[in-house]
């Protein structure tokens, strides 16, 4: 039997620091990631917990410039529609935000959930089948933190059409549903404060407002 490690106070403090410095990066350098780093990060991502040990995550490395451009075009169309939802100062503020790193990030990653996987034999999904997607999100968070620990940033692009992304990437499995489109690379700047806080879009909620007792 393996002896589990002891995570001392110094490690715990450093871990908390990692959580605080994890940012949704939008401004990337174009420097490529070292050979093998993406595979190492993805292998770490698969250490995440999953309902019934179903491991429903499916990672697609988007390498093709043509496919990347198509994703970028779809983002532009969706972003234009999203801008129309805001008026006045809020519209001006939205238009000023850089909401994707699609142009400069050296690595693009589409993350899907296999919603019909037979792995795990459905354990834990009877009343909450959405836990499959929650498991994929857990793998993304694991990837995010592992990347940040190595000085690499991650940006989550959500202003895209999932079905169009499947079409662009030639994903014909009907059970695969897009969970995230990620930009990955070295950030141009490091910040402990989220960008949407720095730009005045949305402040963090106080802790007391997010924890209740019954």
Mean pLDDT across the residues is 96
Morphology call? globular
| Structural Rg | 19 Å
Count of helix runs: 7
Task: Specify the biggest β-sheet.
Answer: 4 strands, antiparallel
Number of strands: 4
What structural category arises from helix and sheet content?
alpha+beta
How much helix is in the residues? Answer: 25-40%
Termini separation comes to: 41 Å
In short:
The chain is built from seven helices and four strands. The chain is an alpha+beta fold. Helix 2 packs across helix 5 (131-149).
Q: What this model shows, in words?
A:
The chain is built from seven helices and four strands. It is of the alpha+beta class and 214 residues long. A four-stranded antiparallel β-sheet has the order 1-2-4-3, with helices on both faces. The longest helix is centred in the middle third of the chain and has 19 residues.
Summary keywords:
single chain; 214 residues; alpha+beta; four-stranded antiparallel beta sheet
Strand and helix layout:
Blueprint lengths: L8 H13 L15 H9 L11 E5 L3 H19 L4 H9 L10 E8 L16 H19 L3 E5 L4 H7 L7 E10 L9 H4 L16
Antiparallel strand pairs: 1-2, 2-4, 3-4
Helix pairs in contact: 2-5
């Amino acid at each position: 039997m393996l002896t589990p490690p002891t995570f001392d106070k110094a490690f715990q403090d450093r871990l908390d620091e990692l959580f605080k410095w994890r940012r949704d990066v939008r401004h990337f350098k174009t420097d490529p990631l070292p050979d093998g780093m993406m595979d190492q990060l993805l292998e770490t991502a698969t250490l995440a917990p999953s309902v019934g040990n179903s491991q429903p995550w499916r990672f697609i490395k988007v390498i093709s410039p043509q496919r990347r451009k198509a994703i970028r075009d779809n983002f532009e169309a969706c972003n234009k529609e999203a801008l129309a939802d805001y008026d006045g100062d809020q519209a001006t503020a939205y238009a000023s935000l850089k909401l994707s790193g699609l142009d400069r990030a050296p690595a693009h990653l589409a993350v899907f959930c296999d919603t019909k996987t037979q792995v795990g034999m459905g354990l834990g999904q009877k009343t909450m089948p959405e836990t499959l997607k929650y498991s994929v999100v857990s793998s993304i968070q694991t990837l995010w933190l592992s990347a940040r620990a190595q000085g690499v940033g991650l940006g989550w692009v959500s202003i895209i059409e999932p079905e169009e992304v499947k079409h662009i990437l030639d994903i014909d499995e009907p059970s695969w549903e897009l969970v995230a489109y990620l930009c990955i690379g070295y950030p141009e700047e490091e910040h402990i404060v989220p960008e949407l806080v720095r730009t005045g879009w949305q402040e963090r909620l106080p802790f007391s407002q997010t924890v209740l007792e019954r």
